């Protein structure tokens, strides 16, 4: 590989991870590599992350060197790939109060008012970088650095479905009730995951999400 920033490292004895760094341009190449590898080697479980791509394989059936070469080749051929425009989905959010119990702490941490945090969160168009953590959970890139805050020191045992949170430079929506440590600033009634839909997850990598402050 010619890109000195790239690494391919083993994760235990049954997985290899290609790490390429963060950024939308890099993520777009990872999307292309992910799609290609899923077609080429469907027997391998390909997991797309933020800035990385991991192949989980059976070492008794597939040699590690094959996975490594596949990752190298897919990354190389992803350069200059053209991408279909994803969908733009508006998601109404009720911010603060009982819907966003961490809005006030986030405002305090950032030195902003609650209204300023809401305005900064609802302003950008966010890109779905990848899915993970929970079925239908989308990691959204594009958060304004002024409202970037770390995860809660003590995670909650139960976060309700539809909770909108911030963690580091990302924002996301909990599709299902679960434990979680993101800072919760709002909530939506839009269902993010329905196992009875033809496509259960509402969002996919490459889609754009636009939050709309609701009364």
Which helices and strands appear, and what pairs or packs with what?
Layout: E1 7-10, E2 15-19, H1 24-40, E3 45-49, E4 52-56, H2 64-78, E5 88-95, H3 103-110, H4 114-122, E6 125-131, E7 138-141, E8 156-159, E9 163-167, E10 170-173, E11 178-180, E12 183-187, E13 208-213
Parallel strand pairs: 5-13
Antiparallel strand pairs: 1-2, 2-4, 3-4, 5-12, 6-7, 6-13, 7-10, 8-11, 9-10, 9-12
Helix pairs in contact: 1-2, 3-4
Attribute tags:
215 residues, alpha+beta, seven-stranded mixed beta barrel, four-stranded antiparallel beta sheet, 4 helices, 30% strand
Structure description:
- The protein is of the alpha+beta class and 215 residues long.
- The protein contains four helices and 13 strands.
- The strands form three sheets. It has a seven-stranded mixed β-barrel. A four-stranded antiparallel beta sheet has the order 1-2-4-3, covered by helices on one side.
- Strand 1 and strand 2 form a beta hairpin.
- Helix 1 crosses helix 2 and helix 3 crosses helix 4.
- It is elongated, with a radius of gyration of 19 Å.
- The protein starts with 6 loop residues before the first strand and ends with a strand.
């Amino acid at each position: 590989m010619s890109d000195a920033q790239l690494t391919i490292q083993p994760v235990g004895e049954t997985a290899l991870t290609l790490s390429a760094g963060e950024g939308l341009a890099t993520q777009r190449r990872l999307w292309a590599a992910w799609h290609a590898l899923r077609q080429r080697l469907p027997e391998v479980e390909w997991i797309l992350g933020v800035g990385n791509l991991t192949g989980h394989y059976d070492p008794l059936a597939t040699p590690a060197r094959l996975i490594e070469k596949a990752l190298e080749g897919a990354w190389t051929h992803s350069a200059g790939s053209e991408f279909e425009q994803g969908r733009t989905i508006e998601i109404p959010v009720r911010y603060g109060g009982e819907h966003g119990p961490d809005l006030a702490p986030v405002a305090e941490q950032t030195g902003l008012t609650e209204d300023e945090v809401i305005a900064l969160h609802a302003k950008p168009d966010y890109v779905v970088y990848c899915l993970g953590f929970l079925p239908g959970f989308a990691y959204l890139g594009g958060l304004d650095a002024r409202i970037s805050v770390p995860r809660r020191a003590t995670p909650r045992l139960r976060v309700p479905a539809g909770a909108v949170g911030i963690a580091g430079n990302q924002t996301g929506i909990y599709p299902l009730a679960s434990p979680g440590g993101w800072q919760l600033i709002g909530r939506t009634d839009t269902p993010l995951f329905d196992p009875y839909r033809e496509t259960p997850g509402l969002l996919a990598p490459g889609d754009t999400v636009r939050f709309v402050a609701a009364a």
